[in-house]
Amino acid sequence: MLYYLHLLKETVTPFNVFQYLTFRTGGSLITAFLIVLLAGPCFIRWLKSKQGEGQPIRLDGPQTHLAKKGTPTMGGLLIVAAGVLSTLLWANPTNPYVWVVLAVFTGFGAIGFVDDYLKLTQHNTAGISGKKRLAIEFAFSFAACAAMICLENGSMATTVTIPFFKNILIDIGWFYIPFVLIVIVGTANAVNLTDGLDGLVSVPIIMSMLVFTIIAYLSGHIVFAEYLHIYHVKQASELTVLGGALIGGTLGFLWYNAHPAQVFMGDTGSLALGGALGTMAVATKHEIVLAIAGGIFVVEALSDIIQVGSYKLRHKRVFLMAPIHHHFEKKGWSETTVVVRFWIVSILLALAALATLKLR
């Protein structure tokens, strides 16, 4: 809503800054960060009073995790609230891409909330059945896909860009719809799988979101898009404000989620952030770059798929425990060592993803 203050620039000259994306992105990041940081202590106390024993702990997991019993979950509610409020405050409310990503963000957050609630009330780690959860996620993703195809409204609507090459666009026709569904749902669940240690998922999310915040700004700016030989998506640049809000909210949450965690993100936060990240990748036509920037999520998801597939086919496990961050714990790495090393890799992957914009 603050966007409209730039209309008063003739009367109050400093209000002119509200038309600049960089200023509003910084504002949204700081606003979301402060909302989470300031509301965190009170919110964590409230969660503890309502949840009792907190998030159920897997008994077959590393024994060190048993000490986490009593830590409240659903902390992602704070990220969702801060992200939505900050975006509505700083973004241009007439931009359709902002509403599409916000819808996926809140929709997937709602799915995660129900899942977390069932785990708490049923005192187990089951939650919503896998088939029901995937069906709802695919429904949200299909709606988002249809909206973005309508927004593009042209021959380029169903195209996929190839990184490292100039102006290579492949039109995959109707296959674009299942492709988008896999990108959004796959990203959301891969982020969810990564959220297994204190602070582990936060930095990879921040780095991946930073990559797509930059890509949104560049692809939405026709001069930069032409200079870098990337596909120009009209109006996509406003997603930088939303990206800033999600980065700020996640940074604020990391303050309380760093080891030893005072609160867990839960499926509420991880599904919401993953869904938003996947949707931003689709909106900016950089779906394949997401596999680079979010390489940590890809490896986490693949390790789980390989483990399950191997056990069903050969009755043997490839990893000591899946997802792979638990494998390293079982090998003797401390939780902090696993988290920091994954953070380092995520930073390097983010730099590699950004390099695709210039190395063409």
Domain count: the total is 1
Q: How many beta-strand elements?
A: 2
For the biggest β-sheet, the strand order reads 1-2
What oligomeric assembly is this protein in? Answer: single chain
The total of helices stands at: 13
Describe the fold and architecture:
The chain is an all-alpha fold. It has one domain (2-287). It is 64% helix and 2% strand. The chain has 13 helices and two strands, in the order H-H-H-H-E-E-H-H-H-H-H-H-H-H-H. It has helices at residues 21-51, 76-90, 96-122, 130-152, 176-194, 202-219, 222-228, 239-257, 266-283, 287-293, 295-314, 324-330, 335-355, and strands at residues 159-161, 169-171. It has a two-stranded antiparallel ribbon. Helix 5 (176-194) packs antiparallel against helix 9 (266-283), helix 6 (202-219) packs antiparallel against helix 8 and helix 6 (202-219) runs parallel beside helix 13 (335-355). The longest helix is centred in the N-terminal third of the chain and has 31 residues, at 21-51. It is globular. The mean pLDDT is 91.
Which features does this protein show?
two-stranded antiparallel sheet, mainly alpha, 13 helices, 64% helix, 360 residues
Record the SSE blueprint:
Elements: H1 21-51, H2 76-90, H3 96-122, H4 130-152, E1 159-161, E2 169-171, H5 176-194, H6 202-219, H7 222-228, H8 239-257, H9 266-283, H10 287-293, H11 295-314, H12 324-330, H13 335-355
Antiparallel strand pairs: 1-2
Q: What's the quick description here?
A:
The chain has helices at residues 21-51, 76-90, 96-122, 130-152, 176-194, 202-219, 222-228, 239-257, 266-283, 287-293, 295-314, 324-330, 335-355, and strands at 159-161, 169-171. The protein has 360 residues and is mainly alpha-helical. It starts with 20 loop residues before the first helix and ends in a 5-residue tail after the last helix.
